[in-house]
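The instructor's notes for this session suggest beginning with a concrete chain rather than abstract definitions. Hand out the sequence below and ask the class to guess, before any prediction is shown, which regions might be ordered.
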Amino acid sequence: MKRRNRRPDRRRIKTLRSYTIEETARTLDVHRNTVRHWIKDGLPVIDRRRPALILGSHLAEFLARRRAARKQTCRPGEIFCVKCRKPREPAGRIADYVPSSPMAGALIGICPECGTLIHRRTSAARLRSILGELDLQTAQGQSRIKDTAEPLANCHPEHEVSNHGELQR
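After discussion, reveal the predicted structure:
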C-alpha cells in the first residue's frame, strides 16, 4: 500500500497550467476527495460545472496559505515539541545547551506535557535572545577525532621496518 504524503509539495504545481480535480490529486499525491475539501475550504475553481478546473497559480497560493496558517513559531524560552506539535516551555524552565561546533549547538529540554526530549537548533550568537527566562546549563560538546603528531605503524612488535620500507625480523 502506498503511503500518502501528509503535506502536498506546492513546488510540483506548474503555475501557468490549469488542472482538473483528478490531475491535481495525481500531481500532489493526495486523494481526489481531499481536493474537493480544499474547494469547499476556499480553493478557487474556474468553473463550477464539470470538469472543475483549478489554476496552478491559485492552487500554489492556496497551499502556501494553508501551510503558513499552520506554522507555529517559538517565542523566547520555548522549544517545539514534535510529539505535542506545539511550542512548549521546558519543564522547570531548564534547558541544556550542547554545542555541535564552535558556532552552533542545540537547546535540549523536557516537554512538561508528554515528557519527551525537545530540541531547538541555534547559533551561539542568537542563544541569549532565544533563552528568555530559561536556566541554561552548558554541556561539553562531543570530542572530535584529531590527527596525531606521529603516524602509527600497524606492524607486529617483533618486526621492524628498515629505512627502505622492507620488513625485517
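Then share the key points. Strands lie at 18-19, 54-55, 79-81, 86-88, 94-99, 104-110, 117-123, 135-138, 160-161, 167-168. The chain has four helices and ten strands.
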